[in-house]
Structure formats: C-alpha cells, structure tokens
Design brief:
The protein is 32% helix and 12% strand. It is of the alpha/beta class. The chain folds into two domains: 225 residues, Periplasmic binding protein-like II (D-Maltodextrin-Binding Protein, domain 2), CATH 3.40.190.10; 195 residues, 3-Layer(aba) Sandwich (D-Maltodextrin-Binding Protein, domain 2), CATH 3.40.190.
Length: 455
C-alpha cells in the first residue's frame, strides 16, 4: 500500500458521469452529482480499430451547439488535458463555423425543461445530460434518438470508442454516450478509525474471498463502541442513506428491484427480502448505523460519515472531498446470492443523449466527438480524476480492477409510484417484517411498471 502525493481535489468538478441519489416516489431535495454508467466500452479494455471519420468541413453558418448538464461541462483548464481540449474546441468551432455553449440547468429543472422543449419541437439543447431513470420514459415516448440514428461506421464511437463510448443499453438499444471512465461505487472505509480500533483490513478480506455480509456485520459491530460509558456509541460501524443502502445490498445479493427489460418487479423477490432483512438487522437489531439527522430516510445521511466516527459508508466518490481522515474502498460486501459481475446499484447513472427534434443530429454529434480528439495524456480514462480523489494506489487499483463496470443500473425511480421508498421506510423506521412488507407492496410495484411500459 502506498499513499499518493500531490494531487488536487479541485478536479472533482471535472467528472462527466453518478451514485446515489434515488428513492421510489419521494425524491430528496438535493443536487445529485454525476457518476458513471458502467459498460464494457467504458473501461480501458482494448477495442476494435475503425477508420476515423474525415468528412469535408461543413459551414454551419455560426450555429450554436448547446450542451446541457446540471454542472458546467466546459473544461476548467485545471489540467493539460483540459487545456488541450479547450484548444480543440476552438479549432473545431473554426472548422465548422459553429460555437459551443455549455448550458448549466439546475438538476430539478432539467427534466421539465427537456420535456417541454421536446414536446414543442424545439429541444433547448442539442446534447443533454440525463439520468437513466429520466431517460427511460422519454425513450418510450420517442423523445430521444438512438445512437444508430446519428452515427455511422466511420464514427469513433462505433469503432475504437476512445473519444466517446456507448453507455449501457436502455429500452433494448443504445441511446446514451459519454466519455470512457474507470469509476464505480463501493464500500468506503475510514482508514484512521480502522487502525485505531484494530479492525481487519477489508482489502485483505476481499482478496481472501471473505468479504461478505457476515464479515461486514462483524466489523460493524466491533466498530460500534461506547468508549466513555455514557450509554451512547462514540464510534459506529456504518452510515448511509437507507434507500441507497437498500439498493446496494439488493444488487450485492444478485437482484435489482425493478427489471425494466423484463417488465417485472423484484421488490418481492426472496433476494430482495433477504437484503431488506440484513438492512433491518444493521439498523434495528445490532444498531450499528449512525443516524445523525434522526431520520434514516433523510438523504442528508449521505454526509454523516464526514464526522469521522463511522467505520464504513456507501457514498458517491464526488462526496469525498475535504475529509479530515484517510479513506479506502472495496466492493460492496457480497450477499449469499451475490456474484462479482454486479457489486453495486448504479441508481443515479447518467450520460448524454440527443433529443428527437435536434436539427442535423449527425453533424452535431460528429462535431462534438471531434472535440475529444486530443492527445491521450492519461495512462487510463479518468486517471486525473481518480488520483485527485483517492490518496492510495491500492484504492485506484481496486476501483479499476474489481469495481468499475460492475454497477447494475437500477431505475425503479423511472416508474411513478414504485414503492421503494415506502418499502424501505416500513422496514427501517417501523421495523416491519420484510417478507410481509414485500407482499404488501408487490402489486403496487408491478402496476407502476406496467403503467409506464404499457404492459
């Protein structure tokens, strides 16, 4: 294990693709940040070469190409790669007689703005960042173009895919694209606290094949201590937003609670019930979870780990800046039915889409793709970003080799009235039986899916 030196947290704002702000029907009042949408093409795996497109420059007459997200997508100039891309954007603008405008739209306004403008036949931007759970209803309504509708075999995305890459299919086809990346969500841990309490190294446990729910609970119980005998713990085993944790543990047990491809709810699946039972054990039986706000359903519990008195926590990597302690990462511990293919719930996956109604979408995409044709200075996609967050080489190796690409996109929030939030609340807050609660909400969950999918 070697600690890395000299990297700036300032690059946190540069990520173009997100874990973990979702909840069935009851959205928190927060501003989710970007995370990854894992796909095989989004790693540094080799890809088949394809000829680079060499179209004759088209005079676009000064057209403004708008690229929208809920954060600023314009390169900040913080790295040499940023500076190279800014120069490339300027070059491409002159080549095609266009101007790029990077539009920042508040997260909560993005979907209403997208929907209203597309319905009116005038999309407010040519390329728009959307979460998968927002994209699914739009795709089903014909409001988003397939990648095949605005690319050809000559485009890099259909060949090497090292400039932009296809992201995980949705609704049976490829619609989403973005930059290649090597990130993913896992179980973070407070290195300082682990050392102080003499807790076993999670990475060693993972390497020995012992990193599972039982071992996680064992460590969480050992970390929950009342050191001053005041009747309250001074350190805790775990902290998270409970809805997020519910989805992670379900996926780590081999299931996602809503399968949009099959059109089937799995809220009542035995594997989901098993995950809910484990979560209930953490909160209500062994009581190893710190709930700072007093309400485990509060999204702000995503920040509780920052107090430095929590051993393990599930948060998105963008939420790790400015901490007063060292931290590490391993995959979410495996449940009894889990497998290494999917280790976490990518509940806030997002990527870029081109709305139906954009004029000359083939040219828009081609011009945008060309802005990424710059020298590759990083050893792997996302190197600057990861090294700006994680201070230890073994964490980056763990991310790249065992976590990246293992996220199962979970979009139960795409279905209005899907009862993930209510299901979790009854189990965690009301201490209800997971099996009985699953049976209670089974019909509602399936009806919510049927309504959107037209089943």
């Amino acid at each position: 294990m070697r600690k890395m030196k000299g990297f700036s947290i300032l690059v946190l704002c540069l990520l173009l693709v997100l874990t973990a702000c979702s909840g069935g029907g009851n959205k928190p009042a927060n501003d989710p940040k970007p995370t990854d949408a894992p796909t095989a093409a989004a790693t540094d795996a080799p890809a088949t070469e394809a000829p680079s497109p060499t179209p004759e420059p088209v005079d676009m007459g000064g057209r403004v190409i708008k690229v929208a997200a809920w954060w600023d997508l314009k390169p900040a100039g913080a790295t040499q790669s940023d500076l190279n891309r800014l120069a490339k954007i300027e070059e491409v603008e002159k080549k095609y007689k266009v101007k790029f405008e990077f539009v920042v739209v508040p997260f909560e306004e993005m979907v209403p703005k997208f929907t209203a403008s597309v319905i009116a036949g005038e999309p407010f931007a040519d390329i728009i960042q959307l979460e998968y759970k927002a994209a699914l209803p739009a795709i089903l309504k014909g409001q988003i173009l397939k990648i095949s509708e605005f690319t050809t075999d000559a485009n890099n995305i259909n060949g090497q895919g090292n400039l932009l890459t296809k992201y995980t299919p949705i609704a049976g086809d490829y619609y989403a694209f973005d930059n290649p990346t090597s990130i993913g969500a896992g179980m973070h841990y407070n290195r300082n606290l682990f050392k102080d309490l003499g807790l076993p190294d999670p990475k060693e446990l993972y390497e020995k094949g012992e990193w599972n729910w039982d071992k996680f609970l064992e460590i969480a119980k050992a970390a929950t201590k009342d050191t001053n005998n005041d009747g309250k713990p001074d350190t805790y085993g775990f902290a998270a937003w409970s809805v997020d944790a519910m989805k992670h543990f379900a996926v780590s047990n081999g299931v996602k609670i809503a399968d949009e491809e099959a059109g089937i709810e799995y809220l009542s699946d035995p594997r989901t019930v098993e995950a809910a039972e484990f979560l209930n054990k953490l909160y209500n039986v062994d009581k190893v979870v710190k709930v700072k706000t007093g309400n485990p359903m509060d999204w702000n519990e995503s920040h509780t780990f920052k107090d430095g008195d929590v051993a393990m926590f599930t948060v998105a990597e963008w939420n790790l800046g400015g901490l007063g302690f060292d931290f590490g990462i391993v995959p979410i511990p495996a449940g009894p039915n889990g497998n290494p293919q999917y280790t976490y719930a990518n509940a806030a996956a997002s990527a870029k889409f081109i709305p139906n109604g954009v004029k000359d979408p083939q040219l828009v995409y081609q011009i945008f793709e060309e802005t990424f044709d710059i020298p590759m200075l990083e050893e792997y996609p996302g190197q600057d970003y990861l090294e700006g967050i994680y201070g230890f080489e073994d964490d980056i190796a763990m991310l790249r080799e065992h976590i990246a690409g293992t996220g199962l996109i979970t979009i139960d929030d795409a279905f209005p009235d899907f009862p993930t939030y209510a299901f979790t609340e009854e189990i965690i807050v009301k201490n209800a039986s997971p099996a009985a609660t699953a049976e209670k909400y089974k019909a509602q969950a399936q009806e919510a899916m049927d309504k959107l999918l037209g089943n």
